[in-house]
Specification:
The structure is a single chain. By secondary structure, this protein is α/β, with parallel strands linked by helices. Helix content is 25%, strand content 31%. The protein has a seven-stranded mixed β-sheet. Strands 6-7-8-9 form a four-stranded antiparallel β-sheet, with no helix packed on it. The longest helix is centred in the N-terminal third of the chain and has 15 residues, at 25-39. It is globular and about 55 Å long. This is Class I SAM-dependent methyltransferase. One of its GO terms (molecular function) is methyltransferase activity. Residues 45-137 form the Methyltransferase domain. Keywords: Methyltransferase, Transferase.
Length: 251
């Protein structure tokens, strides 16, 4: 077991509702449009597949998708939508769990690699992706750029999302690269519900070094799924690393 938090039944039950904005077509379609051509006629493996937000529509595009997911309750929610024959999922962590087969694409979306809360585990995640890739295959991650530039001296938190009924503040430990996201939801009865998630943030250049340790080469980096340029002002990145076609083995 890695240091990732395991989402329980209550969190899994609420997930699709509390994350509804990430299921919107204008958010989801560009991600699927980006990933499907990279898989091509080959198979795809999603780390941290969750309730199938991306894996299910990618399967609907004709891509053979397999998933790895740490939370059994999240897999149970996915099973309400699609059966195991259509989209097989193995319960396990993304740093060490292996599944049979060789894949043209391994992908990890919506900042999920940060759920691994040590650098060692994050390096092992890259290595695990490389082990599953066929020569010439790609590893793709979607990851936010830490918002530490918003932190003036003495300010402990950064507002990340302020919406109707949901507010998010992030606190950072700059020495350890640990981050906590503090979520506040306004419930229908007027009460407020609080939840927190704990992460380790990673800089893009650090990701590239992890990829290099896994035997992968940076191929592309964009600011979003629509392939906008990645700049110093980008708040997230879509990065694509390629396993050399010569078939070099990772550690």
């Amino acid at each position: 077991m890695t240091s990732s938090e395991v989402w329980d039944d209550d969190t899994a039950e609420r997930y699709d509702t509390t994350s509804a904005e990430m299921f919107a077509r204008d958010v989801l379609d560009p991600a699927v449009d980006f990933l499907a051509p990279l898989a091509g006629p080959g198979a795809a493996l999603e780390f941290a597949i969750g309730t199938g937000r991306v894996g299910i529509p990618l399967t609907a595009r004709g891509v053979s998708v397999t998933g790895i997911e740490l939370s059994a309750p999240m897999v149970a929610k996915l099973r309400h939508k699609v059966d195991n024959a259509t989209l097989p999922v193995v319960v396990g962590d993304m740093a060490t769990t292996s599944v049979p087969g060789e894949f043209a694409l391994v992908y990890l979306v919506w900042n999920s690699i940060s759920n691994l809360r040590t650098q060692t585990e994050q390096v092992e995640c890259f290595r695990n992706a490389a082990r599953h890739l066929a020569p010439g295959g790609r590893f793709v991650i979607e990851l936010w750029v830490p918002a530490v530039r918003r932190l003036p001296p003495g300010q402990p938190a950064v507002p990340m999302s302020i919406g109707d009924g949901h507010i998010v503040f992030d606190t950072y430990d700059l020495a350890t690269q640990q981050c906590t996201s503090h979520h506040y939801w306004r419930e229908s009865d007027g009460t407020t519900r609080y939840g927190a998630g704990h992460f380790r943030y990673i800089w893009p250049a650090e990701c590239d070094l992890m990829a290099q340790l896994a035997g992968l080469e940076l191929e592309d980096r964009f600011g979003d799924w629509r392939r906008s340029p990645f700049t110093s002002d980008s708040e997230s990145h879509i990065s694509v690393w390629r396993k050399p076609a010569t078939g070099l083995k990772s550690d």
